[in-house]
Design brief:
17% strand, Dna-directed Rna Polymerases I, Ii, And Iii 27 Kd Polypeptide, Chain: A, domain 1, alpha/beta, 7 strands, 9 helices, 203 residues, Arc Repressor Mutant, subunit A, two-stranded antiparallel sheet
């Protein structure tokens, strides 16, 4: 099977995040549902993508096989962490929303950041953001999606790391309702931190 340019773009999108649902593929590539399912069935049949249902009453997820990941510059996903499922889907949704708002900016995923950090087997300790939004003028915006409450000390430690990282212009936090006050209280004297409602962003 010869892959089309669109096929490769879909595989690259899936592997950039590790996995995704059909809804995110539809939103990213603006194809109707019958056409998307036709494409995904073909990619699955020819061994480029796997489809698996993880949770009851949730859509199945797509992830690249070793064969499919060969068309990307990231390795195949070694394991699917079910405890991070909703968080990961929310990150993809935030990314898609930001791409609509800032079409000239590019995205660096958490998977890519980790891969680059540990590629040579050394790596440095420290926090890795959920993604980096890179603007054409060189501004790097760290993106954080917070859905559960972290301890105050942990939040402060993460924000101090960002404050010391001169490559990061701002940090945009997308917080669920139960988290937004905790992050706001820590970031009051940190003007480089911008806090948004996750629910409003995804509405």
């Amino acid at each position: 099977m010869k892959l089309t340019e669109r096929d490769i773009e879909i595989i690259q999108f899936i592997n950039e995040f590790g996995f995704c649902e059909m809804d995110q593929i539809e939103e990213k590539f603006l194809l109707n549902k019958p056409r998307n399912y036709e494409i995904m069935r073909r990619l699955i049949k020819n061994g480029f993508v796997n489809h698996e249902r993880i949770f009851f009453r949730r859509p199945g997820i797509y992830y690249a096989t070793a064969k499919g990941s060969g068309y990307t510059d990231l390795p195949v996903v070694d394991r699917l962490l079910t405890n991070q499922y909703i968080h990961q889907i929310s990150i993809i949704k935030v990314y898609l929303k930001l791409q609509q708002l800032y079409p000239d900016a590019s995205w660096i995923s958490e998977r890519r950041l980790k891969h680059e950090k540990f590629y040579d087997g050394i790596g440095k300790t420290g926090h890795i953001s959920d993604g980096i939004f890179l603007f054409p003028d060189g501004r790097r915006i760290a993106i954080e999606v917070e859905m559960s409450v972290k301890g105050k000390n942990r939040i402060e430690k993460i924000l101090r790391e960002y404050g010391a990282d001169l490559s990061i212009k701002e940090v945009w936090y997308y917080c669920s309702k139960r988290v937004i006050s905790a992050v706001t209280s820590v970031a009051t004297k940190m003007p480089f931190v911008k806090i948004f409602s996750l629910e409003e962003c995804l509405s």
